[in-house]
C-alpha cells in the first residue's frame, strides 16, 4: 500500500468529503470502499457547528486538509497553518490555483508555497501538473509526494495526457505519486495504477454518482485490479495479430 | 467596538481574541483564527488584542476534495 512521508495508508483510494447528498451517504461511501485517506477543508464557521468534524473522526482514517480556493502563496500558507492546528496533522494538500476557470495549478506559486511550508515542518502533497521540470522543483522544495492532475478538477474526463503522466512516472520512479483530480470512472483509476502510480485522489466522481457508495466500491476494485496488473508485468502491445491457439496439430478439413 | 467577523460587521465588547470568541459563541468550538489575514494560533489568542475595524476569520473543518 502507498507510503507517504513514512506513513502507510490502508488503500490507494484517497477520497474527498464534499458534494455528497447526505452525511450518511458520505459515511457509506468511505465504509464500502475502504478509502485510505479523507480530504477535508477549512471554511468559515457559524457558531455552534461541529457535526462534520465528528463525522470525519468516526471514519477513523488519516485526514488530508487542502488549501482549495487559494490563489496566492500567502493565502495557501496561512490556510495550511490554520489547518494544521484544527486537524492536528502536518499533512497538507497544497493547492495554489492559477486560473479560476480551469483551476489549473499556478506552478510558480506552488513551488514557493511548497518551500515555505516544507521549511515550516509541513508534509506537503502538492496538486500539480504532469510537468517534469516543475516536479523536480517541487522535490527540491522539500516535497516527498507529488500529485499530478489527471484532468481539471471536477471534469471527470480521465487522463488527458497519459504520455505526460507516464513520462513523469518514469522520471521519478522512487517518488510516491497520486493522480489527483479529473477522474470520472473506475476504469480511469485502473489505468492510473496500471501505469505504476501509487494512488488516486478523487471526489466528484463518487459524490455525484447516482449511488455514491457503489461507485466508491467500484473505484476501490478498479484500483486493486490496476495494481495487480502493474505488478504482474503486462505484455507489450503489438501491431500484428498472433494466434493464441497453437497452429501445431491443426486438422486439415478442406 | 465593531469588527468584521467572517465577512459580517459585528459589535463586540471583548478586548482580546479569546474573549471575543467566547462572546461570539465559539467557546469550545474546534476552529482556527486569522486576524487581518495573519494566523493566530490558539495559544496566542489570549494575548492577541483587538482593535476596531479588525478583520477576523474563524474557520472550521468542512467538506473538501
What is the percent of helical residues of chain B? 10-25%
**What Rg of chain A do the Cα atoms give?**
20 Å
Mean pLDDT of chain B: 96
Which CATH class of chain B? Alpha Beta
The most extensive interface, with participating residues per chain, is: A-B, 35 and 25 residues
In whole angstroms, the N-to-C terminal distance of chain B is: 38 Å
Classify the helix fraction of chain A into a percent range: 25-40%
Structural class of chain B: mainly beta
* SS content category of chain A: alpha/beta
Shape of chain B: globular
Counting structural domains of chain B, the number is 1
Mean of the pLDDT scores of chain A?
96
Largest sheet: spatial strand order of chain B: 2-1-5-3-4
Helix count, DSSP H or I runs of 4 or more residues of chain B:
1
CATH topology of chain B: Ubiquitin-like (UB roll)
Beta-strand percentage range of chain A: 5-15%
Task: Explain how this protein is built.
- The complex is a heterodimer of chains A (254) and B (65).
- In chain A, α3 packs across α4 and α7 runs parallel beside α9.
- Chain A is α/β, with parallel strands linked by helices and 254 residues long.
- Chain A is built from 9 helices and 10 strands.
- Chain A is globular and about 85 Å long.
- The mean pLDDT of chain A is 96.
- The longest helix of chain A has 20 residues.
- In chain A, the strands form 3 sheets. Chain A has a 5-stranded parallel β-sheet with strand order 5-4-3-10-9. A 3-stranded parallel β-sheet of chain A has the order 6-7-8.
- In chain A, α2 links the parallel β4 and β5.
- The termini of chain A are far apart.
- Chain B contains 1 helix and 5 strands, in the order ββαβββ.
- The radius of gyration of chain B is 11 Å and the shape is globular.
- In chain B, β3 and β4 form a beta hairpin.
- The chains are: A alpha/beta (254), B mainly beta (65).
- Chains A and B meet through β4, α2 and α3 of A and β3 and β5 of B.
- Chain B: This is Sulfur carrier protein.
- Chain B: It comes from Thalassococcus halodurans.
- Chain B: InterPro entries: Beta-grasp_dom_sf, Mopterin_synth/thiamin_S_b, Thi_S, ThiS/MoaD-like.
Amino acid at each position: 500500500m502507498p507510503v507517504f512521508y513514512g506513513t502507510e495508508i490502508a488503500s490507494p483510494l484517497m477520497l474527498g468529503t464534499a458534494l455528497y447528498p447526505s452525511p450518511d451517504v458520505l459515511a457509506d461511501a468511505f465504509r464500502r470502499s475502504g478509502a485510505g485517506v479523507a480530504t477535508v477543508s477549512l471554511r468559515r464557521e457559524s457558531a455552534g457547528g461541529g457535526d462534520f468534524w465528528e463525522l470525519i473522526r468516526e471514519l477513523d482514517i488519516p485526514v488530508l486538509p487542502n488549501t482549495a480556493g487559494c490563489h496566492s502563496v500567502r493565502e495557501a500558507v496561512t490556510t495550511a497553518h490554520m489547518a494544521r492546528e484544527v486537524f492536528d496533522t502536518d499533512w497538507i494538500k497544497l493547492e495554489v490555483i492559477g486560473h479560476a476557470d480551469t483551476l489549473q495549478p499556478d506552478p510558480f506559486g506552488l513551488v514557493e508555497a511548497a518551500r515555505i511550508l516544507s521549511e515550516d515542518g509541513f508534509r506537503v502533497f502538492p496538486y500539480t501538473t504532469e510537468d517534469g521540470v516543475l516536479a523536480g522543483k517541487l522535490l527540491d522544495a522539500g516535497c516527498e509526494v507529488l500529485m499530478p492532475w489527471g484532468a481539471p478538477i471536477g471534469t471527470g474526463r480521465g487522463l488527458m495526457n497519459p504520455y505526460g503522466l507516464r513520462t513523469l512516472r518514469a522520471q521519478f520512479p522512487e517518488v510516491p505519486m497520486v493522480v489527483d483530480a479529473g477522474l470520472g470512472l473506475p476504469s480511469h483509476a485502473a489505468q492510473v495504477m496500471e501505469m505504476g502510480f501509487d494512488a488516486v485522489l478523487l471526489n466528484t466522481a463518487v459524490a455525484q454518482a447516482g449511488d455514491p457508495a457503489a461507485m466508491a466500491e467500484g473505484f476501490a476494485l478498479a484500483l486493486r485490479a490496476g495494481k495487480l496488473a502493474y505488478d504482474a508485468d503486462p505484455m507489450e502491445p503489438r501491431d500484428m495479430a498472433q494466434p493464441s491457439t497453437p497452429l501445431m496439430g491443426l486438422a486439415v478439413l478442406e | 467596538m465593531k469588527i468584521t467577523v467572517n465577512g459580517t460587521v459585528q459589535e463586540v465588547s471583548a478586548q482580546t481574541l479569546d474573549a471575543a470568541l467566547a462572546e461570539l459563541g465559539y467557546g469550545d468550538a474546534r476552529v482556527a483564527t486569522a486576524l487581518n489575514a495573519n494566523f493566530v494560533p490558539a495559544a496566542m489568542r489570549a494575548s492577541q488584542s483587538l482593535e476596531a475595524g479588525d478583520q477576523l476569520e474563524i474557520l472550521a473543518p468542512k467538506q473538501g476534495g
